[in-house]
């Protein structure tokens, strides 16, 4: 065997059971980008939050190169006022094309991610 053999493996035995609960930070079905496609106007990342979050949105071009990164923090008070929050993004620095946005939301409970495709036509 080039990369090892079935008899040569590493096993970790745990004496305790781990309970890992996943608490969503935002509702993935209610998280989207509009207008999509954008005809040169600003786009909005609309999200429905359950809890406070630190947001990082990485925007990649279709070739996979990082074009832009957006940071935004939503505090408890923001979420209590409205669970629907928007992050407005100015597309003037980007050329026409298809882009992939990777939304990363994190807080004390963990990390949640979503990928959304959007287009820009100028």
Helix-strand blueprint:
Layout: E1 26-34, E2 43-49, E3 53-61, E4 66-74, H1 76-81, E5 84-89, E6 97-107, E7 110-120
Antiparallel strand pairs: 1-2, 2-5, 3-4, 3-6, 6-7
Q: Can you tell me about this structure?
A:
It is a single chain. The chain is mainly β and 122 residues long. The protein has a domain at 47-120: Immunoglobulin-like. It has 1 helix and 7 strands. The chain has one helix at 76-81; strands at residues 26-34, 43-49, 53-61, 66-74, 84-89, 97-107, 110-120. The strands form 2 sheets. Strands 4-3-6-7 form a 4-stranded antiparallel sheet. Strand 6 and strand 7 (110-120) form a beta hairpin. The model has no long low-confidence stretch (mean pLDDT 84).
Poorly predicted ranges = none
Amino- and carboxy-terminal Cα gap: 55 Å
Round the Cα radius of gyration to an integer and report it: 19 Å
The count of helical stretches stands at 1
Number of strands: 7
The mean pLDDT is 84
Strand order of the largest sheet: 4-3-6-7
CATH architecture type of one domain = Sandwich
What is the CATH level 1 assignment of one domain? Mainly Beta
Helical content (DSSP H or I, runs of 4+):
under 10%
């Amino acid at each position: 065997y080039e990369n090892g053999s079935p008899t040569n493996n590493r096993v970790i035995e745990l004496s305790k059971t781990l309970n890992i609960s996943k608490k969503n930070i935002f509702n993935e079905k209610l998280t989207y980008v509009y207008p999509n496609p954008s005809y040169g106007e600003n786009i909005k990342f609309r999200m429905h939050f359950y809890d406070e979050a630190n947001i990082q949105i990485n925007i990649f071009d279709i070739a996979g190169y990082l074009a832009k990164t957006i940071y935004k923090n939503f505090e408890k008070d923001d979420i209590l006022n409205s669970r629907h929050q928007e992050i407005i993004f100015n597309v003037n620095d980007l050329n026409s094309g298809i882009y992939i946005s990777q939304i990363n939301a994190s807080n004390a409970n963990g990390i949640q991610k979503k990928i959304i495709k959007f287009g820009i036509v100028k």
